[in-house]
Amino acid sequence: MTYTLISVSSVTYAMKAKNLLNGMGRYCEIERADRNSRTGCGYSLRVRDDPSEICGILGKSGIRTGEQRTVERGGRP
Amino acid sequence: MRQIYFDNAATSFPKPPSVAEAVKNAVINLGGNPGRGGHVFSQAAAKAVYDTRAECARLFGAEPENVVFTQNCTHAINLALKGIARPGDRILISSMEHNSVARPAFALTKKGVRADVAEVGKNDAETLENLRGMMKSDVRCVVFTAASNVTGRLMPIREIASLCRERGVCLIVDGAQAAGAVPLGLGLGMNFICVPGHKGLCGPAGTGLLISDGEYSLSTVIEGGTGATSGELEQTGFMPERLESGTLNTVGIAGLGAGIRYLNRVGMDTVFAHETALCDMLIAGLKKIGERVYRTGDRFVPIVSFNIGDIPAPALTSRLSEGGFALRGGLHCALLAHKTLGTLPDGTVRFSPSVFSSERDVAALINYLKKISETGFLPIEI
User: Fold this and answer.
1) B interface mutation test: which of A5, A9, A12, A41 has the most B CBs within 10 A?
2) Is A77 a member of any domain?
3) What is the greatest pairwise CA distance in chain B?
4) How many CB atoms are closer than 10 A to CB B253?
5) ipTM of the complex
6) b or e along B101-137 (b: 16 or more beta carbons within 10 Å of the residue's beta carbon)?
7) CB within 8 Å: B64 and A16
8) Which of B47, B134, B138, B50 is nearest to B95 (CA)?
9) CA-to-CA dists, residue B323 to B4, B318, B326, B379, angstroms
10) Which pLDDT belongs to residue B122?
11) Do A5 and A46 form a contact (C-beta atoms < 8 A)?
12) Most B CBs within 10 Å: which of A9, A10, A60, as the mutation test of the B interface?
């Protein structure tokens, strides 16, 4: 299974995003980012759907997203 | 002796059983630091915190990220007022403010901010006229209580917000007594609402909220670890972390969430009707025995201020305490309000029931007050 990790700036935005996406019936789990972003610390959303579409949905709710990385199940980014 | 608690305007008691359960559950199961790691303990705590944040956001018509957890309402007011006012600005506060507003405003005057008091009039129209007359171009911010903590009088917040919007002035509302009693949300037009978690929202002590509409970015009063942007020395720029430095009160926040859910379950209208009926009962009783009730205005949250003859309020409340009734007497940390009411230096006795108060308890209080009124006051010998 392939996932996409989308970084968000804080656990609050991560929780908001998860609630929003789960509420729409879309898969989303929260992970602590494997690597710190440029500014340090952060959380990632693990999603299965098209990341551009997901970022569009989140953006409309004021959730800013950062970099995206594709991950194979069991693998590392 | 059984003690009957009528001091819910200070802090509500007892708390709903579900609040105690939530607090206990948090102590046992939510031990991680929310937003400070990826492990299951941290994530579980973060979820509990977010769930309450979202609950609060729904209640006040805000986005979850614009709900900031604070220690209490005073903390929230300080964050808002000191975060918005800059040297050279002018701020206006009402003449019925609690010291939680008056003292930070006074402190700001030592830092180049001008603070003036807008008189609350005999009615809403007069109050609005007084405020309108003071809205000059240098006014940066207005702080108004939604309901007086002394008399319970509700202020015309929607109209005040409209006036502030017209003039491009920030409005901070002190919702200490109104939150949980009457609908109070950003839909009324204010920019910030400051509320305690431990009064009308039925949460534990040590909880409060600063709710923002997101229009103004506040300067910080406290900086530190936020669990975000840790690679920069500059304080986190986004909400709510910007204003939430240090470890959050997970236990209290979990309890607050349970308190709000309890309020939603019972219904704010139901609680308000019950408490207002008890206030009306007391007022009728006090009027019958010919004592003074302080009730100027049209609409009130469930608070009644009164005096019995010329007995000083602090002494009367000591006497009531001996009789098994917990009411608060004195100035209620509201110097300006008592100055406005003409009740300095001894203030008033304040009655504030809760959803758990009963007619029987109020009848017992009226009976006790009647005896004091009829027989005169016996000073407590020390």
Assistant:
1) A12
2) no
3) 71
4) 30
5) 0.84
6) bbbbbeebeeeebbbebbebbeebeebbebbeeebee
7) yes
8) B134
9) 9, 9, 9, 14
10) 94
11) yes
12) A10
- In terms of Cβ atoms closer than 10 Å to its own Cβ (0-12, 13-18, 19+), residue B37 is middle
Return the CATH fold of B267-375. Answer: Aspartate Aminotransferase, domain 1 (3.90.1150)
Tokens 């005073």, residue? B74
Under CATH, which number does the domain B17-265 receive? 3.40.640.10
The answer to whether B46 contacts chain A (CB < 8 Å) is yes
Q: Note whether residue A34 is domain-resident.
A: yes
Query: Cis bond leading into B196, ω under 30°?
Result: no
What does the pLDDT read at residue B379?
45
> What percent of chain B shows pLDDT beyond 90?
93
Q: What residue has token string 């997203």?
A: A65
The whole-angstrom separation of Cα B185 and Cα B62 is: 8
Q: Enter the DSSP assignment of B369.
A: H
Q: For residue A67, give its domain range.
A: 2-72
Per the structure block, which two tokens stand in for B114? 């001008």
- By DSSP bridging, strand B170-174 and strand B192-196 are parallel
Question: Across all residues in chain B, what is the average pLDDT?
Answer: 96
What's A32's domain CATH number? 3.30.70.120
| pTM score | 0.94
Mean pLDDT of B39-60: 96
Q: What are phi and psi of A58, to 5 degrees?
A: -65, -40
Residues of chain A with pLDDT under 70: 35-40, 73-77
* Three-point CA angle B44, B48, B30, nearest 5°: 50
Distance, CA of B254 to CA of B32 (rounded, Å): 13
pLDDT tens column, B146-188: 999 999 999 999 999 999 999 999 999 999 999 999 999 999 9
Q: How confident is the model at residue B382 (pLDDT cuts 50, 70, 90)?
A: very low
**Number of domains observed in the structure of chain A:** 1
Per the domain annotation, does A65 fall within a domain? yes
Which residue in A19, A30, A40 is closest to B230 by CB distance? A40
In a domain, A41, yes or no: yes
- Taking the domains of chain B in order of start, what are their residue ranges? 17-265, 267-375
